User: Fold these one by one.
Assistant:
Number 1:
Amino acid sequence: MTPDIDISAALQAKVLEAIAQGRPLQIAGGGSKIFYGRAPQGEALSVTGHRGVISYEPTELVITARAGTRLADVEALLASHNQMLPFEPPHFTANATLGGAIATGLSGPCRPYTGSVRDFVLGVKVLTGKGEILSFGGQVMKNVAGFDVSRFMAGSLGTLGILLEVSLKVLPRPESEQTLLFECSALDAIQRMNAWAGQPLPLSGAVFDGGRLYLRLSGSEAALSAARQTLGGELFPDGTAFWRDVRDHTYTFFQDDAPLWRLSAPAATPPFDLPGEWLLDWGGAQRWLKTSCAAATIREITAKAGGHATLFRGGDRQGAVFHPLPPALMALHRRLKAAFDPHGILNPARMYPDV
Amino acid sequence: MQDPASQVDHPIPNKSVLITALHRILPSSAVLSDAEDLRPYECDGLSAYRELPLAVCLPETVEQVRAVLRVCHDMSVPVVARGAGTGLSGGALPLANGVVLSLAKFMRILEVDPVNRIARVQPGVRNLAISQAAAPYGLYYAPDPSSQIACTIGGNVAENSGGVHCLKYGLTVHNVLGLKVLTMDGELLEIGGAALDGPGYDLLALMTGSEGLLGVIVEVTVKLLPKPERAQVVLAAFDDVVKAGEAVGSIIGAGIIPGGLEMMDNLAIRAAEDFIHAGYPVDAAAILLCEVDGANEEVSDQILKVREILKQAGATEVRTARDEAERLKFWAGRKAAFPAVGRISPDYYCMDGTIPRKRLSEVLSRIAELSKEYGLPVANVFHAGDGNLHPLILYDANKPGELERTEEFGGKILDLCVAVGGTITGEHGVGMEKIGQMCHQFASAELAQFHAVKHAFDPQALLNPGKAVPTLHRCAEFGAMHVHGGKLSFPEMERF
Ligand SMILES: Cc1cc2nc3c(=O)[nH]c(=O)nc-3n(C[C@H](O)[C@H](O)[C@H](O)COP(=O)(O)OP(=O)(O)OC[C@H]3O[C@@H](n4cnc5c(N)ncnc54)[C@H](O)[C@@H]3O)c2cc1C
């Protein structure tokens, strides 16, 4: 681990300077998710120097760390106390930082079963586009004083503020983990994944890769062996590597230059009538599609099912990467952006053209 | 008490013009304006604060809600949304120059989708009714506030309510997937839905716990969970509250996340036992209720572990519920703790601070000292696993000055929670009640940021104005009173 450093004063000076000169800044963590969102604009402001774990108390189930801390370092520390980040954040590369994980709001395969990034955010210290350092939430499990600005920061792609510190709820690692394998069709997989999710089973992952359904179970030995009785299937020996590869997009499906779409829809939605190759994650609630199909078609079909579509990787990064919002919601986004970053200097247009 | 300085300045509307306008858009039975009809709405669960509004509206359709909002918007009349009125912080307290917008008639469960495991409901649906509707499918809605037979899902979202099973299954914010919200100018926003996320900012996070300040919730989509195969509860008695607190840390430290982990002190135990006859040990200084749930074998395993940990932590008695009936009895005592305390005292005042669990013993000792100083007994009930305290201060409002002393005592408890790194409210909200303590928890720059968020939704500050977020002016006044003689409360406590 690299030494702890607090550079919040220097970062604040940079933001004040940028405000004075009307110069946009692109907030740079480890660069592991730089492909995500609309193309970055502005002068790079690195936050990786702002790092270190500030407090961690295993019995309180809370960790607080500076945003530039490497995600891998945070997870290694937690693992040494047999705990984990319960939302299984994608790293994509070894440089991934904690701040980037929160700002992109991406969660791994366990998301439908344990929760998303924002579900585990307890508090943040944030440097806003006004150049102010503000604290919201805290280190306690329950806190309803004031609007929940800390959870609101998750997934805001640095367009509202530069995350300086984050407090997260952590959980014990499961006693054991097993992956089961089933051969089936996509429709069959969707039905099975949803039927199982409606039963009290220790599920922590459900992926269909086009030919096989992978089901991960996490919990006590007793719970796992009981679940295996109910579920059947074949025991898959390389589960750990498989789930990491799905999480970090190093799985073979993702080794491709075709534009990659992420469709988020109600989990039991039947297979979409869209051409391309599919990988279904989150028990069907998150679907990856490699396709050259037109954005408008993808969005129309996803929206009809009650979902939304993101051009996750590749394709036109200057265009509508995220699903367009209805006018009233878009206007509200602009007003909220202005409430935190009135000069529009933080990651401008990373999410929507004027947000 | 309600302080006029905390109310945002809105002109006093002409009552008869307003009533006429409301009658034009609603059936006559849906507009109340006579004092005796308004009386049932004068307070919420915090009955020490009372106020009569100009009118109460009881719309039945989203279009009617929109029409009410438009009338009030055009006349600059403040609007206070109201569910069942069980809130404990004066969030639904009417404003004298405002309208109460009751969502009580929105009682329909629109859809239960067992395959996608969601329910779409109107905001006035009672919390428990959702679980009842989902039960035939083996599903339930997890957050279970003790008020669940009465409180509405709209109120739950507005307060981000919790319950005795939050430690494992989360608060309202973790269990809501979608909202339909009307803004003050009558715009309908659809936020999230039946998918696990939506595009853009996480407005669900912002709306949840916003205490009716950002929009009126007209529909809620919640997540349903499969009922665990088995749940089992252990009751442990302790001769010392501190030991009970330490046992909580040991259970979690052992890697066990119980479904519920609750603590009650002696006064609360006796009150609950008198009322419910749950079989609680009335001589114990404290009891812990620890519930584990999951697969049958797993529960058996964990119960053994929990029992062992509790004994090691010095429990004088460890009792596993013999059957489902006894399990429910143990919980019934806990869930009825507030009304039970209500039976032994003319009035009680419920506090809601949250602290880092490791500071529990010092906070409890300090509360006990303050209780002596003020001569007011305190019964303690907490969501121990989450560090969320509910000290109940027993008082008699008919004794002159006693309410004021109770409020001062309560304020000190909240200051204490902030001083040890906690918060003034874990689940009941700020409302009107803790508006002063907000100045203590947040610096003015953060409060200004809250106002900026509010402004983005409701630029004229017509939705529940004066609640939840104090004006900086209000804080200046409160601060002058609070840091009396230049002394901070609890200078001896380490500050975070
Ligand atoms: C005996 C007792 C036990 C309790 N136990 C718990 C507990 O265990 N956990 C817990 O968290 N709370 C508890 N509470 C507090 C209370 O029940 C909750 O805060 C509940 O969520 C309030 O719901 P309600 O429908 O009564 O809302 P109300 O009291 O009517 O309103 C609460 C707030 O929500 C706003 N609001 C209501 N409906 C809407 C809407 N549709 N749109 C926008 N804003 C709205 C109101 O303006 C107000 O600010 C308890 C209360 C009592 C009396």
Note: The two ends of chain B are 29 Å apart (CA to CA).
Number 2:
Amino acid sequence: MTAIETTDVVVIGSGFGGAIPAYRLAAGGARVVVLERGPWLTGEDFEHDFKFGSSSTRAFEFTMGDGMNILGGNCVGGGSVVYFAAMPRAPRYAFERLGGAGRRMWPAAIDRPALDPWYDKVAESLPISRQDWNDVTYSGGLFAAACAHAGRTANPVPAAIDRAKCTNCNWMMSGCRFDAKRSLLLNYLPGALAHGAQIRALHEVQRLSRIDGGYRVHFNTVHDVDYREVTGSGAIDCKVVIVAAGAAATPAILQRSEEDLGTMPAAVGRYFSGNGERLNTAVVDENRVREVLGLSRPDGRAYEAYQIGKGPVCATWDWLDENLPEFHRYSLEQLYFPPGFGTILAQVRDATGPTWFGAEKKEMLRRWQSWLTVFIMSEDDNEGVFGPPPETGNADRISQQMLSRGPLRYDPTANTRAAWARADADVRDILERDGLAKVMPWSDEVIGAYTVHPLSSCRIGDDPETSALDDTHELRDHPGIFVTDGSSVPGALTVNPAFTIAALAERAVPGIVEAVARRGVPVRYVAEPPEAVSSSRRPLLTQA
Amino acid sequence: MPSEATRLTVSEVMTLEAFADTIIPGERRYATDRAVAGAADGGGAVAAGAVDLMASEEGGIGGLLPTLVIGLNDHAQAYAEKHDRTLDDSVPAFVALDFDDRTALAAALMAPGTDEQDLWVPLAMFSVMAWDTGASVHTTEALAAGHPGLTTMGFTEPDADGLWRFPDFSYRRVLASPHPHTTPSGDPA
Ligand SMILES: Cc1cc2nc3c(=O)[nH]c(=O)nc-3n(C[C@H](O)[C@H](O)[C@H](O)COP(=O)(O)OP(=O)(O)OC[C@H]3O[C@@H](n4cnc5c(N)ncnc54)[C@H](O)[C@@H]3O)c2cc1C
Ligand code: SF4
């Protein structure tokens, strides 16, 4: 029998929720092993290529559910590798939300002022910077000008992007070839490695079991091309486990652990939120853009620049207003989604036949460079529920990479639908004014709703009935298990969530350090930011 | 790619082509083309490699295709009976439907709440992806070969090293007033 490896802390998942505690615990002296189900891609692995098998599918996950589909990262660095790096703080009122139960969803200990110092830590570590109008891309500028024309405000959105290096290639979802996007591969993860942490790619955790003085983490190893293929399995023993597999995957690991660990809190796998997400696509009239908004590019074209840019750069925050009732608050953010994901569900305005496929859709696609996509982030009702976990991982994989089918069910309530309808009407009001564009929301009849911002499936709170974690992120009734990813966020934020997820993870670290120390590990809290690196290229020595 | 497409029969390929052509229609490849209905100018999903993508090993649905073909043709047969269409039986039933009937049937099969939506939507997604992204080949090669979808959409050519860069990307003007409560770090209050 081979001896089972032992360490102090196992971190499951290497996105924001995993990388941050991994760095701080390793820097503080703990032995840390990070298990990540996806591959470890860096630098030139990030291809400008839609071909199946390139980084656009290797690093990405699209999990179809019943009424809700989740897009996310599947690689070392998690969502930070494929995300758009728009990093606004959540507005004050988001923390005061009552939600369906009629009482404050967030723990009493957390509000915006309490979280601000932790946001600051993340901002300094990634880093995040304020953008100005010279950074705003054509599509962002067009959206801002349309907002202004409609009497609205619009803001350049703070971003974790190194503007000097960014080429505005818009290949964000395949990973950044130019190391301009400040993903976790450039800060917290190399910081963790520098302090001796190990990161093991292609290790998919299945479940936890109890051992004397801690937990055993059971994993499968998966094939580096065909993720459906299990190549082996193993386990690591540790004193403390940090579950950070993302809101789409954390519930499955905990549910599968119930057999050995005993009953999980009722809120594990419930209260999932898609951050009230929804998209609208406009096809703009180039002449009206010139005449009404007075916009033109150096080469004389008015716009025709959908492909150019770095994802979302401009947003209107007019409805992030604490005086409005719940489900009336949302942000609208201009966005780019590449062909494929970004085109399938877009609908033809005034179609006589099918709206999302067929001859009229092809006509709409001919004008793709004149598209403008607007992202709605609103308040939903936390109505997502995970069914029993699949045999392995968080979903049954269909394709070798990327495409899978998982057990999430999401049936949007009247509140959620009304919020979407209000925001849809608003997008139309802004963009159809004076014939600027024709706008349609994406179809929700083909695959249901979709989100790149899965949240709340294992949330913090003060009420044990509706929250799985206490305000230190410790799993109720299971001491030594902490959850620090997007699943811990109590509800929709009405803005992009990664900054808030990261700030919450930072806030949770001192408590986790104490928990590890209590178990006899010589570890202290380290407040310094990780040393920034400029290349994601993997240090040769550190791969296990 | 030693694609499983080679293992599909001629009539299976025709049926899948006719479905893909319903999703993103294109012009006929040759005068006697039956699978492609010729409902739009320029190459459609079929010319963009939809069946290769459906059958690709990476895609993972290749093994299902023969069953899907049987299902599609059964539905086409039932549709024809219900709507009094006489089908030319020298081609698969779905291929024998005209473009409008194929469209109506595809829409019905993918309608929300229907039993088989989960089967047909992925097939449609592969068809769209073939045209919009050319995912069965490298994007640079697809563009160099004049891929019908990417070129019709106006997807630009990369730099000589196969990477995209847009040095001209901004109007470089103040285009709106920021929200009055914006914090010094540029965040919502
Ligand atoms: C296309 C796209 C664009 C986005 N743009 C933005 C944006 O501009 N701004 C913003 O704020 N947010 C954005 N997001 C969302 C953001 O990426 C997520 O909110 C964030 O990454 C969530 O962090 P997390 O730690 O919860 O999970 P993740 O970052 O998803 O990390 C979870 C990690 O766990 C791994 N994992 C899962 N299961 C297992 C297992 N069983 N064993 C081991 N490892 C496992 C996953 O592979 C993944 O690497 C975007 C997301 C996408 C998909
Ligand atoms: S747009 Fe900029 S940050 Fe995004 S992938 Fe391209 S170079 Fe990187």
Note: Chain B has one domain: 2-153.
